[in-house]
């Protein structure tokens, strides 16, 4: 069995591969919490995509199991140990601006266009066909191989979390939902809020902050901010608007100021980016807070603005004394993702922290609490997703490196990322493809596509990886 040409086996099944992939891509499997049922807890489309995978697996002779319509698996082989492969069939909303039907799965110029083609339906089908090839070749296995199908990866991971409450944890595994060659380290991810209570006493400040809103997700750099101000002297509004335009020009961002009697509305447009690296964007809320710092605000409003503004050019935990980096996964980062303030209710600042794999999160949390102790701010809603990390010399890593290098002829560099994949749901697992080095990352974008030949190449890689990891000991 050692001389199998895995790509030849993939190409023999190319027509069926594309047909099965198109069928999955044509299901609109977007989370729909407004129209759920006991049988479709995440919406009908998500359930249909899960069932689609289970149905094709049953047709091809795999053992299937639906776990509460929140996840499922397809299994082959025997043995006490199990190789797990974790993919997901839910997708983010399609959004606007597509040049093709986002659920048409149209192929043109060697690319298949659809929401989920690269994240993560295409790679999931590639992993499935890797299993299918090994099964159809009749290769004896010393481990069970299980494709675990998640349904809520783009939101709260309810699918995979429910699955592992009910089902066995694999001995080892990989996740086809990131980049090739191999991601051996993923930073820990923690979201938390700094909450400021409202003050009850009246204010006689020259300018009163009525509301401040920027950002809706912890893990994105906000690209828009809007502020409502009340000024005591209406004649000051013209001067304020002039100063604001000067600030925008100097800062290299866009925005607008409008006045209605004694109220001024300021808007600011920044540059969005993934929260894993705040420096890649221009945080609209932080820029807005910088401008407002120069104004004579009410006490409550000034406190909120000063707190937000402190994060300008400080995304490495400096405010809390938690700056940290290691050789495995780099620097700790903090993104200010949500800024929400009103005069009546006070303020909330939502932060997304990505911490290196060797960072002690409990000590870090205590430092944050100590920093806030005398600030009038409360730490609330603290969540923590532990890092994923497998040593470089681990047999899992070494096997995947061997397979990747044999199939591509390229060196398998090990990667560390600030993002999070299902690998962190495994006790022993890594992210492994399916985006090849140098390829455009169009996940979550309009006109999302996958290059068909790349998916076929990934299938050959996954087939050999399954064989190498699950074969009987010779």
Count structural domains.
2
Work out the helicity level: 25-40%
Find the CATH topology of the largest domain. Answer: Aminopeptidase
CATH level 1 class label of the largest domain: Alpha Beta
Major β-sheet, in short? 8 strands, antiparallel
Number of strands: 26
Low-pLDDT segments? none
Radius of gyration from CA coordinates: 25 Å
Summarize the structure.
By secondary structure, the chain is α+β, with helices and mostly antiparallel strands. The chain contains 11 helices and 26 strands.
Name the features.
single chain; 474 residues; alpha+beta; Aminopeptidase; Alpha-Beta Plaits; 2 domains; 8-stranded antiparallel beta sheet; 6-stranded mixed beta sheet; 11 helices; 30% helix; elongated
Descriptive notes:
The chain has 474 residues and is of the alpha+beta class. The protein has two domains: 6-186 and 388-470, Aminopeptidase, CATH 3.40.630.10; 189-385, Alpha-Beta Plaits (2-Layer Sandwich). It contains eleven helices and 26 strands. An eight-stranded antiparallel sheet has the order 14-15-13-11-19-20-10-21, with helices on one face. Strands 1-2-6-3-7-24 form a six-stranded mixed sheet, sandwiched between helices. Strand 19 and strand 20 (346-355) form a beta hairpin. Helix 7 (284-292) packs across helix 8 (299-309). The protein starts with 5 loop residues before the first helix and ends with a helix.
